[in-house]
Each structure stands twice: as structure tokens, then as C-alpha cells.
């Protein structure tokens, strides 16, 4: 009999989890509480309880070549960064191409997941689901939790003295859909995440005044990066990653600092982060909106009054009509028993951010919970490829001593508060998981066999297709997809002149890169 796997959620992580189960010959059943696939990427006008909610204008922060599943490139005519509707189109194409829908039960909520009494020997789970008010219990050999963390808003009102006196309107960013609510109003946006900045920019086109207040500041990146290339195709290359992760910390910080301040000096714009290093914010408009006076940046809130707000270290109060709290989300797995994923002081103990460390058998995995400076699809897919092989008992590095000792190593505990969410380096993390299943490309080996491909892999963007060149799940089209990645980026923009192939290889970097490549070969890359 084939192993039965329960997949919770049919968003970007859930879909690839189903596909990886099928690839490994497992039998997936996916439970999706809404009536359709897409998770956070499926925009609805109405906010549905327990489901993530987007605003109408959301565009992906990562480019299409870096956000693709590794054996399914985006169609070439799709834009380079994707409005939510186009990203949903891609997920639908993926689900159709690999016939994933037939494994999904829509309108079915997972109520709870319990270990079976004989879990220590079988590793099995009782999964209770509810459909049309009727509950059903089934036994599964393994479980993949793919429900993300954008469903339970975090709104710590107790941190904002005087909020109960405030006469105006306030809401969490999850409630936001369109900017017309801000027409002619004085708006305060609390918090400086991606949503906060997006909402402030949209509001400023119709509002009387917009202020963002932040305790921490933030680095700002633009989607349009050096020479107009997408930021992640410049940032997430093997060469850059090697430099960032092998230079002494102060030096790599100095480089990051120099790079992000090249576009504009953050201090002059009141954005300089408190701490030296954490995930930047992606927005193309904020600096020019600050420069044209549409948006003002202020320090954190000290207290609210009837119709105004007082900021820390700031003498005068500022009149406000509407407050938008962009204070992020809580992690919650309401259907899991406490003992499975222990969240203590907002920390959870997960091996490689996937397997709960206190389980005797690694038969439950959490997919796509990680936040990295890069796209989530390839990461969730890589996790799912690894997990499905672990379920099958293939040699895939959950050998018990490593796994048991994981509890004592630093990598296991990660913060679950909204600003401390686990942040791993995108490329090294992908490489680590890929090496567990033997899918990490070897630049050295390729250099002798296929030098053109080797150089493209090392100097060019680390597109997900690299992880399909060899190992289990090898895909014939991977090499071709890598060599044509820039064509698919230029196709939707180079519409007035014939698109000719071009790629990004600045000369100085090439020289430095060759030296680093030599060093890497000497020290074994």
C-alpha cells in the first residue's frame, strides 16, 4: 500500500507539496478550507475568516524567474514582477499541468491532528476534518502543514497607550482592500513592513496627509535594481552569496550598507534601521514620495489622544483621522496539539525550520514557514522534495542522531514574533536542503563538462532550475531553462525593439568572481 499523506492548505506551498508526494509515489490528500486554490495569492473583495487577505494592488516582490517552481518556468509573456492575478494564473497552470486538483478536497477544514496511540512505532496521525458541518476522522501515515502565516493578524493594542480614547477609525492592514477609504483624510500607518509602505504610498495619492511611524526604520530596495535588472537576479547569485557569507561580518555589513545607501542615503530620509542587519523592504516609490512631501516618516508612537498622536522624542502632537496597524501576523497552528510544535516565548523548535524536533518519528513537516530574502516558491518546493523523501525513508539526513541533537544546536530555535521571524539566507538554505537529497549542482564538476553552464550558474542568478540538473527529480529541460532565463525576462519589456539575448556580467565583478571561483575550487565548493 502507498503511504497516505495529508496536506493542509492548497496555496503556493500546498500545491508543490502535492506534486512532490506524487513524484515520490506517495498518496496525497490535500484539505483546503476555501473553494479554490491559491492561498494568499487569490484576491477576494470580502475578508474570509481564517483565510489570508490581500489588497487589490499587491505585486510579487520577487521576479518570475526566481519565483518559478524548478521544473515549470513562467510563460515568457508574463510580466517580470507579477500582479497577484497573474501569479494566481501561474499557480493554476502548475496545478493543471501536473493534475493536482484531483487530490484536493475543497471546502474542508482541518479541525485537529493528533498522534495515534501507536505513534512511537507507526508514526501515524489521526486527522479530523470538517465539511458542511460534518466531521470525519481519517488515519494518515504523514502530514505536511502548508497553511502559511498570514491568517491571524497580530494587533497588540496594549502597546499603544490611549488607543481606547481615539475617536477616529483604526484597523489592521489585513482589512485593507482599496485606497478610497483614505480620501481627504489624515492617515497614520503604524509599522514599516512591505504592506505598510505599499498602503502608505497608495493612500498618499488620495489622502490629505500620510505619516509612517516606525521604531526600527528599514533598508529599502527597489524591484528595479542595477542597470534596470530585477533586484533578486542581481542579489541572489552564487558569486554574491559567496562574497556575503565568506567575508568577515563587519566587511559584509559595510558592503550591504554601501549598496543600499547607493540609491539614496537612508539617514537623510529618516529610514536608517536601528539594528544593522535585517530583511529590507521592497518598494519602488517611497523615496520619491518622501522627497515630494506626500509621505512623512516619524518615530514610534508614544500615545494616542482623542484626535491625534504623540510620537517618541517629538514635542508636538499630530492630528489623525485613520490609523492602519501594519503590525504583522501571529503564527498559529490551531489544529495541532501543543506538544507537536512547542511555541515558547514566541520560539518554536524545528529542525531546518521544517521538522518539529520533539517527535519520535519525522512524519509531520511544516512547509513554507521560512522568511528569506528571496522567493518562497522554490524554498517550499525544495522543503517538500526533501520531506517526501524523508517520509519514504530514503537517505535524506534525518538520521536520528543529527535530528535528536538538533535541539542543542543554534539553528533550531527561531523567533516567532513578527519582526524576528526566522530569517535564513535564501541561497545557502536552498543549497543545504538540496544537498540532503543530492540535488545541489556542483559548479566544479560542470566546469569541466559544460563550462558555459557552469559560468552561467556561478555568475548568473541562482534560478531554481539549477536544482533540477541532477539528483532525484532531475528534469531534462533544466539546462535549457537556465540558458534562456534572460530571454524570458526581456521578452515582456523589450517590446519596441527585437529582443536579443543579454545577460548581466559587469567586468570588475567578473575578475573578482574568477578569483573567488578559483579560491572556491581550491577550498572545495
From TrEMBL:
It catalyses: trimethylamine + NADPH + O2 = trimethylamine N-oxide + NADP(+) + H2O; N,N-dimethylaniline + NADPH + O2 + H(+) = N,N-dimethylaniline N-oxide + NADP(+) + H2O; hypotaurine + NADPH + O2 + H(+) = taurine + NADP(+) + H2O; hypotaurine + NADH + O2 + H(+) = taurine + NAD(+) + H2O. Its main location: endoplasmic reticulum. Gene3D superfamilies: FAD/NAD(P)-binding domain. InterPro entries: FAD/NAD-bd_sf, Flavin_mOase, Flavin_mOase-like, Flavin_mOase_1, FMO-like. It is a single-pass membrane protein. The chain crosses the membrane at residues 506-524. Its cofactor is FAD. Its EC number is 1.14.13.148, 1.14.13.8. GO terms for molecular function: flavin adenine dinucleotide binding; N,N-dimethylaniline monooxygenase activity; NADP binding; trimethylamine monooxygenase activity. It holds the Pfam family FMO-like. PANTHER family: DIMETHYLANILINE MONOOXYGENASE. Broad spectrum monooxygenase that catalyzes the oxygenation of a wide variety of nitrogen- and sulfur-containing compounds including xenobiotics. Catalyzes the S-oxygenation of hypotaurine to produce taurine, an organic osmolyte involved in cell volume regulation as well as a variety of cytoprotective and developmental processes. This is Flavin-containing monooxygenase 1. It comes from Trogon melanurus (Black-tailed trogon). The lineage of its organism: Eukaryota, Metazoa, Chordata, Craniata, Vertebrata. The gene is Fmo1.
